[in-house]
Amino acid sequence: MPLDYPIATHTLSNGLRVVVSRDHTVPTVTVNIWVGVGSRHEQPGSTGLAHLFEHLMFQGSANVAEGEHFSLLMEQGGTLNATTWFDRTNYFETVPTGALDLALWLEADRHGRLLEAVTQANLDNQRDVVKEEKRQRYDNQPYGTAIADLGALVYPEGHPYHHPTIGSMEDLDAATLADVHAFYRRHYTPGNSVLTLVGDISPEEGFAAAERHFGDLPEQPSTRQEPLPQLSPLTDAPRTDRSEDVPNDRLYLGFRLPVAHTPEFLACAVAIDALGSLTTSRLYRRLVRVEEVATSVSGASLGLVDGASLGFLGIDVAESADPHAVELAVCAELERFAVEGPTEVELESSLADTERSWLEALAGHQERADLISHYTLLHDDTEHINTYLDGVRQVTADQVREAAARWLIPDARATVAFRAVADEATEVVA
Fold this sequence. Notes:
This protein has helices spanning 49-56, 68-75, 100-113, 120-139, 146-154, 169-174, 177-187, 203-214, 263-277, 282-290, 323-340, 344-363, 365-379, 384-393, 397-407; strands at residues 8-11, 17-22, 28-35, 79-84, 89-96, 193-199, 239-244, 250-257, 294-302, 309-317, 413-420. It is of the alpha+beta class. The longest helix has 20 residues, at 120-139.
């Protein structure tokens, strides 16, 4: 049986898609806007602009002073933030129902009238903020470069996912005010965005509010970027080895996966769960519980739309263990899984965990709104939150085995290995 969260949709004359999901359990509304611009839309030499705009959007707009977006909503008891990823940028806030008009007015002002406030001064300021973020989250964070390293190995040079979302600091330094203005005009358009409202509001009230605040934003030519063809699995097992000041040796094994929102991607995601995402997974059982050569095992499947998704396994190597031997053990389990597929228990555990995670996410207004915006913007599937579990329940062991045999074999892996540098201060001198 599909879920039955209420979903109502409407498209304004300027192309903005509006989705309302009524839920009167608490007197709040989540406002969630997804813009179809992420790091995959950046051109060579202009990386990092999508993420930079996430910062600039909080620096004021035509009728809102710098910092006022935060202060006005927080005074009303609201919470807000924004994130940037490969395929999108999203802006979101949850406010008491009575503050909805304020939230929508603030969003409409920056989504339609930002450039009046984008000056050389705040551009320079936010460039410095992004550089500091890179230092904190990537350069000086243990294992902070792992996903960027995997992306550089999994995707060929020139591919939209080859570079990290944070971008190149050299590219950001080279960006002019004219470049920034042109980027905004190209991507921040009503037809390239989805506005989702979840909470204490009817569809009629939501559509009227959207029209009231966003209806006068001008229609712009479409900027949708057609995705690249599906990439084949890796064949040469590329790797990067790093010696750094990290707590322990850690291995990341990355894989190209099918693009998101396909049955084969779902089968791969189930395979990664069965292999490493759960404490009942076979890699956790072998490496942590039985052989005690690892202290933790994790896995994730990042669904992407442009040519290939990304899957990876992470293994924290025990202090006394040999990382090379651990990697060989992982490869042996990958080979065995490709032949045997998941056991009945592994399949049931993975599917049950997927269902639990999905239902848990939908229970909250914020995550439900985010999922609605996600599938509406990237897949034109507004009802996906209600139908996803039907597809999950249809996944078979044979489908998982076949997907693993193509996408998750040792030769198709990219390895990023972190080796802990010995602390000279603790070394014993003979």
